[in-house]
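Sample pair:
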Amino acid sequence: MKRGEAKQTKDDDNDNVVQLQSDMQALQSDIGRIGRRLNIIANRAVQSSRENLSERATATRETVAANVAAGQEKLGVAADNGRKYATKQTNNLRKQVKSRPIASCAIALGAGVVVGSMLRNRKSAK
């Protein structure tokens, strides 16, 4: 190789190295920008997910509260109906006792004997 050609090759190599360094710096800059953009996108996705989750939690909380209120209302109605039924049956029983006091006493006595007998048998079985 001639001296001029060797110098030209060395200069070309130096130019290539300088260009490669410049390209690497540009690539590092591009990677930095990509990282920052990915960070922004990820933060937005996280924020959106938080908002979505918060909205769903609020909706679920409201649904549960509405269902509890409806259940309480139904329970209140059932309790009122139970009280009315018990009062009606108590009044009917009072009327029967007043209209037939001797028969009522005999039935109560018979029921007491049966229950007492069952309890006595139960104690002796143990």
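The chain has a mean pLDDT of 91.
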